[in-house]
């Protein structure tokens, strides 16, 4: 597609519910990132995929967070047993570069705003 | 540790010039990015510096000093639509982006 598409744009969950957030990156983009952004803060790294391989998941805050990209395109971020502190905007970004030289310019989706009540 | 510092908020007048500073400390360095983020929207790429000096792109310019761990974004001929948050991010030796908290720029008529 023309840009990075994320769904849902808004999600309200009751504490303890599971949620799944979807990211459709730009076609052909090798790298895919998930970030968490709190209000008034910069993006905080969650996890990184190169094609279908999850190369870095060091930013996932707990084992309740799980991400996958099984065919190297669409990715899903799943949060189990949501807690109030999980409320944030979840941003997905993709880029052409694997780990080659040159600027690794990220194209972001508009984000999924999660509110946990 | 790795750290990015930038001012929380700045105010400027329409038509004026504003400079947003960013200092960084990272494990290795592979470049410095500036992104613009309007409220409720996705961050969008503005500029990338990897060598020392000034990169000019229309009304926006970005400067880098690697020895000082310092960058700035210069916005000229400010327009109301430039009201947004400006995010500074440094790429470390693992090609991981370390993000600042963003500078909220308020433009007044």
Description of the molecule:
The complex is a heterodimer of chains A (117) and B (109). Chain A has 117 residues and is an all-beta fold. Chain A is built from no helices and eleven strands. In chain A, strands 2, 4, 5, 6, 9, 10 and 11 form a seven-stranded mixed β-sheet that branches. In chain A, strands 1-3-8-7 form a four-stranded antiparallel β-sheet, with no helix packed on it. Chain B is globular, with a radius of gyration of 13 Å. In chain B, the strands form two sheets. In chain B, strands 2, 4, 5, 9, 10 and 11 form a six-stranded mixed β-sheet that branches. Chain B has strands spanning 3-5, 9-13, 18-25, 31-37, 44-49, 53-57, 60-65, 70-75, 84-91, 97-99, 103-108. Chain B has no helices and eleven strands. Chain A binds chain B through residues 4, 40-45, 48, 56, 91, 99, 103-111, and chain B through 4, 31, 33, 41-45, 48, 50, 87, 89, 91, 95-97, 99-102, 104.
Unreliable runs of chain A, pLDDT <50, ≥5 residues? none
| Average pLDDT metric of chain A | 93
How many β-strand stretches of chain A? 11
The proportion of residues forming helix of chain B, as a percent range, comes to under 10%
Q: How would you describe the shape of chain A?
A: globular
How much of the residues of chain B is beta strand, in percent? over 45%
How would a crystallographer describe the biggest sheet of chain B? 6 strands, mixed
Q: Sum up the overall morphology of chain B in one term.
A: globular
Cα(first) to Cα(last) distance of chain A is 33 Å
The structural class of chain B is mainly beta
Q: Major beta sheet of chain A, specifics?
A: 7 strands, mixed
